[in-house]
Amino acid sequence: MRPSGVKFTKSHEWVRTSGDEATVGITDYAQDELGDIVAVDLPAVGKTVTAGEPFGTVDSVKAVSDLMSPVTGEVIAVNENLTMEPESINSDPFGEGWMLVVRISDTAALEGLMTADEYETFLKQE
Amino acid sequence: MKIPVLNDIHEREGAKIVEFAGWRMPVSYTSILKEVAAVRQAAGLFDVTHMGRLRISGSSAERFLNYITSNDVSSLSYFQGQYTLICNDEGGIIDDAIVYRENTDTFYIVINASNSAKDKQWMDSHMMENVVIEDLTDSTALYALQGPRSMDILKSMGVEESSYPRRFWFTFTGWGSRTIALARTGYTGENGFEIACSNKNAVDLWNAILEYGKDYGIERCGLGARDVLRIEAGLPLYGNELDENKSPVETGLMRFVKMSKPDFIGKKAVEENLAVPLTRKLMGVIMEGRSIPRPGDILVSNGEDIGIVTSGTWSPTLQKGIAMAYVRSDKAVAGHDVEIISKGKTAPGKIVDLPIYKRR
């Protein structure tokens, strides 16, 4: 279910790195817990995000939740399709539901991320 | 923790369960959006067994209920019900409820699960002779069958059509050899029924409604959809729109408060409230774009704080963010432009009259 080569946060975001670029989204578990996602608020290209700090919000029908950045760096792409089709996050959280691409400026935060196996274990403990 | 009769079924069917007012209840089965759509377009079935259900009987039952509730119980015919408020001496709202009359001396009152213990204590402290209060909550189940196809589903189940009560009335009727209490009430803004039965029939009744409802597009619905539907329909929720610091005047519920009654708890305070200008009023808000108001968000007009959101949600029916909000009286006018500050961000919207959604 979860793609390989992806790392996870305890706040249920995922990150896929390629060189110094990191694609960020929320996990299958997160979208299922939230239920129907009806809006997202993401930073603009050029903004800086910081590991462990909020970079935006996601609205389910019932509640608004912070999105926590797994990485530090500059936003170089934003998934504009999510404005009109936020439900992509529910249907394809690791694909069409991607949120940001960040150019990583500090790799230290990557050390603390979980592998798919570690994330699975973490979910069982939650 | 209290557990509804259907708990095993809810768990087995993969419902998302939450604790609500001390009960383990389903918040959704599949998707809140899908469940809301089913109720607006076809039918939805809710387990609302957590709602408090009391039988109040005795030769003074009518006098007692007329004293502790705001609506006029004496006006009720047999098998008629009415929405009502329970107020404290200061006119604050202790709970909202529906009172049904079965006969001269027998009534039922349906109260909020979250207020059940408080209400019973309040009733005990105002007890009269020749009044008996029995709590039926744990011995019965309560379902809400809501949506335009509700009646078709009851018909197909073989529930005698001539027995269907009118809006806000109820009846005891047969489903096969079993007796159910069928009320034409709900919390969704759609045509529908609330159905009570004894615990021993609870599973069979639930399954039968779903089975016969399949052809009509029925969905099982949870508390999440119920909340969205009631916000769209402009129906207040205790703890959000109503509490002990709110008077019936500002909530817009004065049509359920009968000031012509000789006396009831809170009457004097409500009279005083009516004598002074209203400071705030419960209104609706419809947002522009996709921004979604949430409880606690502030309403701003021309740089001034003019109100606060008490309930907010994405409205799948309107495809917009909507809210119920207390708004300063001079700005509580439909059509007035406002901004809502949510999580430090400002989004535009418009004040509207309640209900936000009205069934055609």
Q: What low-confidence regions of chain A span 5 or more consecutive residues with pLDDT below 50?
A: none
What is the number of beta strands of chain B?
A: 19
Q: Cα distance, first to last residue of chain B?
A: 40 Å
Output the number of helix runs of chain B.
9
Overview of this protein structure:
The complex is a heterodimer of chains A (126) and B (360). In chain A, 20% of the residues lie in helices and 37% in strands. By secondary structure, chain A is an alpha+beta fold. In chain A, a hairpin with a 2-residue loop joins strand 2 (13-18) and strand 3 (21-26). Chain A starts with 6 loop residues before the first strand and ends with a helix. Chain B contains nine helices and 19 strands. In chain B, 46% of the residues are buried. In chain B, helix 5 crosses helix 6 (199-213). The radius of gyration of chain B is 21 Å and the shape is globular. Chain B has helices spanning 7-12, 32-41, 61-68, 116-125, 150-157, 199-213, 223-232, 248-251, 267-275; strands spanning 16-20, 23-28, 43-47, 52-57, 81-87, 93-103, 106-111, 132-135, 140-146, 170-175, 178-183, 192-198, 218-221, 280-287, 298-301, 304-315, 320-328, 337-342, 345-352. The chains are: A alpha+beta (126), B alpha+beta (360). At the A-B interface, strand 4 and strand 6 of A face helix 7 of B.
Task: Reconstruct the topology from this structure.
The complex is a heterodimer of chains A (126) and B (360).
Chain A: E1 7-8, E2 13-18, E3 21-26, H1 28-34, E4 37-41, E5 48-49, E6 54-60, E7 64-68, E8 72-78, H2 81-84, H3 88-91, E9 100-106, H4 116-125
Antiparallel strand pairs in A: 1-2, 2-3, 3-9, 4-6, 5-8, 6-7, 8-9
Chain B: H1 7-12, E1 16-20, E2 23-28, H2 32-41, E3 43-47, E4 52-57, H3 61-68, E5 81-87, E6 93-103, E7 106-111, H4 116-125, E8 132-135, E9 140-146, H5 150-157, E10 170-175, E11 178-183, E12 192-198, H6 199-213, E13 218-221, H7 223-232, H8 248-251, H9 267-275, E14 280-287, E15 298-301, E16 304-315, E17 320-328, E18 337-342, E19 345-352
Parallel strand pairs in B: 3-13
Antiparallel strand pairs in B: 1-2, 3-9, 4-7, 4-8, 5-6, 6-7, 9-12, 10-11, 11-12, 14-17, 14-19, 15-16, 15-18, 16-17, 18-19
Helix pairs in contact in B: 2-7, 5-6
